[in-house]
Design a protein that fits this description.
The complex is a heterodimer of chains A (about 80) and B (about 260). Chain A is mainly beta. Chain A has one helix spanning about 30-35, and strands at about 10-15, 20-25, 45, 50, 65-75. The chains are: A mainly beta (about 80), B alpha/beta (about 260).
Chain lengths: ~80, ~260
């Protein structure tokens, strides 16, 4: 059996914006810091539930969590390049 | 009423400019910024997308836009169901500063026409949740009335398909919509050049929203200025009250003193 990082102590596997990531157990706020994300400018969805900004610091990531981190980008009408 | 006292009011918020612009499809951020400034717009649309977590070198879009000066209008572009659109709006509210949303639920990729059934479904939920909903819709007076009845803050009928640049292909429908609803009517999509924007305003529309007509022009910054002027000119002409169309000539020089 291949040992994955996920089963080693302290490390969890989460899916962030559709990508599998192995991270240490930490809060959402700490994780955003590791990605150098300005928390004031994003919205975070954890397992399809939107977190309020005050919940970032109190919400711990768990193994198997699905995280979406979104922000604003330039856009008008419809989707171009799709 | 003069041009300086004439304001666009959406859900109790006042705007001096009646032109709203998208921020997509520009060559680069600098060009987008210059075009937005030239347009005189106070409301700019933005899309909600995943943060690139692998490559963090691109700065935030919000670094380029002064959110104190511009009202961001997040859109749900790319959503094909009410569920997707509602989810996007909720995320936009959390990421943003206001509850304004441009609700767009598309029918298919070919026409980018609205899926009216899903649009109405999403509008109903979002209005109940306290969003200020500005729905992109077909130029159908009945649908516009339904959207108004649901509590949408404005209606945004298309002039022509998104990005087509065909102008307002059914001015009569826009006029019927203006006659049917009390909320601001904002033409969204289809504008190709300045005269199209002027026509929308001359018909009595409260505003015009565009992206491709500016971003896709050879000189987007110059086109943004042209649209700025066209919207203002069209609005002023509407307020001034045009002469009726007549089949025969009417002279404008006096008969008296003719040699």
């Amino acid at each position: 059996m291949i040992e994955t990082e996920a089963v080693r102590g302290g490390t969890i596997e989460i899916e962030v914006n559709g990508e599998k990531r192995h991270v240490d157990g930490m809060t959402v706020l700490e994780y955003l810091y590791t990605l150098a994300i300005d928390t004031g400018r994003v919205a975070v969805e954890l397992n399809l539930e939107i977190l309020s900004k005050t919940e970032f610091a109190t919400t711990w990531l768990s193994d198997g969590d699905r995280v979406e981190i979104v922000h604003f980008v330039g856009g008008g009408q419809g989707v171009s390049g799709s | 009423m003069t041009a300086s006292t004439d304001k666009l009011i959406i859900a109790g918020r006042e705007f001096s400019s009646r032109l709203m612009v998208g921020t997509g499809k520009y060559a680069d951020t600098q060009q987008m910024k210059r075009a937005v400034v030239a347009s005189g717009a106070e409301i700019v649309t933005v899309a909600v997308r995943r943060v690139n977590i692998s490559d963090r070198t691109n700065g935030s879009f919000l670094d380029a836009i002064d959110t104190g000066r511009y009202t961001l209008l997040p859109n749900t572009a790319g959503c094909y169901t009410a569920e997707e659109a509602i989810r996007t709006c909720r995320l936009a509210k959390e990421a943003g500063l206001s509850d304004f949303v441009k609700l767009e639920v598309l029918g298919d990729e070919q026409t980018l026409f609205p899926n009216v059934e899903e649009l109405l479904k999403a509008a109903r939920v979002l209005v109940k949740e306290g969003f200020t909903v500005l729905p992109y819709t077909t130029d159908d007076p009945i649908v516009c009335k339904k959207l108004e009845d649901l509590g949408c803050a404005a209606v945004m009928p298309l002039g022509a398909p998104i990005g087509s640049g065909l102008g307002i292909i059914n001015q009569y429908n826009i006029r019927i919509i203006l006659d049917t609803v009390k909320v601001p009517v904002i033409v969204d999509a289809g504008v190709g050049t300045a005269s199209d924007a002027a026509i929308a305003m001359e018909l009595g529309c409260a505003g015009v929203l565009m992206n491709t007509a500016i971003a896709g022009a050879k000189d987007p910054v110059a086109m943004a200025e042209a649209m700025n002027l066209a919207v203002r000119a069209g609005r002023l002409a509407y307020l001034a009250g045009r002469i009726p169309r007549k089949l025969h000539a009417t002279a404008s020089s006096p008969l008296e003193g003719l040699i």
